[in-house]
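Per reviewer request, we include the raw input and output of the structure prediction for the construct analysed in the revised manuscript.
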Amino acid sequence: MSGIADLSEPVFSGDNQFIIREAGPDIYTGAPFRTKGGAILICTQGTCKIYIDTEIYNLTEDCECLILPEKRIFFSECSNDLRITIFCFSEDMLSLASRKFSQDFFSHIFHTPVYRHSNNTEITTHAYMSLLELTYKDKRNKYRINIATNILRSFLLHVYDKIQKYELTGSKGISANRAEELYNEFMTLIYEHGMQHHDVAFYADKLCITTRYLAAVTSAVANESPKQTIASYLIQEIKILLTFSELTLQQISDRLNFPDQSHLGRFFKQRTGISPISYRKQNETQSGSLPTSAL
């Protein structure tokens, strides 16, 4: 057996209640498959896209993925250096390990199966995975399944604690600290990529969250949608270029990755009530202009 093809097979019975292994760029990419048990994936190197039901997520070396049973999975765009540690477990084992967990936990994992590590959570996760690997290799230990189930429970409690602290409190199910952290990361990404990428999905993928979750974040912090946040950035950039450069509308359109200057003009007027040309004329006597190279 190789990759995580085991996830699509009814292999969990008797002593074979869990599997842990490494996978590379040949990870099971042939066709979508449905999980029989659950799985934890830790990306330790490289990148790939993982499709979980209808959502697409980017996995990078600082990402972790918790997959529930009966999910449809597909991998694509795997980098040549991809390395993923995979811990697969039966549905029975998950049921024992997550006994008395509230539905909030499973609801959160259902909607947000992929997340990035901070330094301290990464260290803890790798420690749990190392213990599970040692337990998996200890074939002669008659308490092997019990030990693995307890380690899985400890790991899930670790995740549950973080969810309760940072995800399940505050406005729309997000704590203020976590929402502000994600919002700041979102704004940093906009400053880095906003001139070329105007779509919300691009930033949600970069943050390893869904577009719905990103909308909850921006609503909680700034009382606006992600699309409005991106639009505000673009309007500010257009105003700066109109005021302090001699670039033509077409050149500004090209720089900010609009299809053409007509699209830019409509975008600008819809949000400011004035055309780009009128805005430039209104401001040129007050501000003068700088050479294009200064921008």
